[in-house]
């Protein structure tokens, strides 16, 4: 059975190496430890066989990246809009008439509004300057000064309101999308786990038998495996030397052969006590 490093498996499946580690912890991928190099490998056949299933994990990561990019683009659009609002505040009074902004200000100011705030809301709603409440009787320059001063104070309030509104909308949209994708991934993962629970024992037996056939001590090892119904590395490594010698009456020389065989594939007996 071929094997892959975590980085090789991650590259092949299009996911991060941390994702591979998580799959190993969840027993989705069969872990192979190499005690000589101290490296951890995964079963390459599992990785190849279930590539289509693992693609869904890659799709999740790509989807999150896409959502982040979309949110970044929307925030750039918000900044452009805010820049336009600022430029309006620096322009002539006729430019700042905006009924939508007047509604926002009305909501922000609440019920306790000053005379200049009421005048600004009225002006932005389309009321002529000489008909504005409280200040309509003043000179044009005085009205301009009052409104300009109130506009400069209102711009940050409008900015924050628009920004928070869009952020909340995007977060809700992102959250709903992720909830849907998460449910889908759970279903996919559940199906994959069930399938792997059936196939993993078969793969482990195949790996063990292939290892025996390739080994120079294949005859001795295969006889022991058949006699004691040992069909996986996991089962073989659950024994101690004492187990093999006292319980199964295996001679010391053959136990040495077993240990050499295990060492070649990165395994060892439960302990090395004789």
List the helices and strands and how they pair.
Elements: E1 3-5, H1 6-13, H2 17-25, E2 31-34, E3 39-43, H3 44-49, H4 51-90, H5 99-109, H6 115-124, H7 140-214, H8 218-227, H9 233-236, H10 241-247, H11 252-264
Antiparallel strand pairs: 1-3, 2-3
Brief overview, please?
The chain is mainly α and 274 residues long. Helices cover 70% and strands 4% of the residues. The radius of gyration is 36 Å and the shape is rod-shaped.
Descriptive labels:
274 residues; mainly alpha; Arc Repressor Mutant, subunit A; DNA polymerase, domain 1; 3 domains; three-stranded antiparallel sheet; 11 helices; 70% helix
Can you walk me through this structure?
The chain is mainly α and 274 residues long. It has 3 domains: 1-49, Orthogonal Bundle (Arc Repressor Mutant, subunit A); 60-182, no CATH class; 215-274, DNA polymerase, domain 1, CATH 1.10.150. Helices cover 70% and strands 4% of the residues. The protein has 11 helices and 3 strands. A 3-stranded antiparallel β-sheet has the order 1-3-2. Helix 5 crosses helix 7 and helix 6 crosses helix 7 (140-214). The protein starts with a strand and ends in a 10-residue tail after the last helix. The relative contact order is 0.09. Mean pLDDT is 75; it is low at 88-96.
């Amino acid at each position: 059975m071929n094997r892959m490093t975590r980085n090789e498996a991650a590259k092949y499946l299009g996911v991060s190496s941390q994702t591979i580690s998580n799959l190993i912890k969840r027993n989705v991928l069969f872990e192979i430890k190499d005690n000589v190099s101290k490296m951890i490998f995964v079963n390459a056949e599992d990785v190849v066989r279930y590539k289509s299933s693992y693609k869904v994990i890659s799709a999740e990561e790509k989807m999150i990246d896409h959502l982040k990019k979309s949110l970044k683009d929307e925030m750039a659009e918000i900044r452009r809009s805010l820049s336009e609002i600022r430029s309006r505040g620096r322009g002539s009074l006729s430019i700042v008439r905006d009924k939508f902004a007047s509604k926002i200000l009305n909501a922000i100011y609440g019920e306790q509004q000053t005379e200049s705030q009421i005048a600004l809301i009225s002006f932005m709603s389309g009321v002529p300057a000489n008909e504005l409440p409280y200040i309509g009787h003043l000179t044009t320059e005085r009205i301009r000064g009052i409104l300009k001063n109130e506009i400069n104070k209102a711009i940050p309030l409008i900015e924050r309101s628009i920004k928070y509104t869009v952020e909340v909308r995007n977060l809700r949209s992102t959250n709903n999308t992720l909830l849907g994708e998460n449910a889908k991934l759970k279903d996919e993962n559940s199906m994959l786990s069930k399938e792997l629970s059936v196939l993993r024992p078969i793969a482990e037996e195949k790996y063990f038998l292939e290892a025996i056939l390739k080994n120079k001590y294949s005859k001795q090892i295969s006889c022991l495996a058949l006699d004691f119904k040992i069909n996986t590395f996991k089962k073989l490594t659950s024994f101690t030397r004492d187990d093999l010698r006292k319980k199964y009456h295996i001679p010391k020389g053959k136990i040495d052969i077993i240990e050499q065989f295990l060492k070649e594939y990165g395994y060892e007996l439960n302990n090395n006590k004789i």
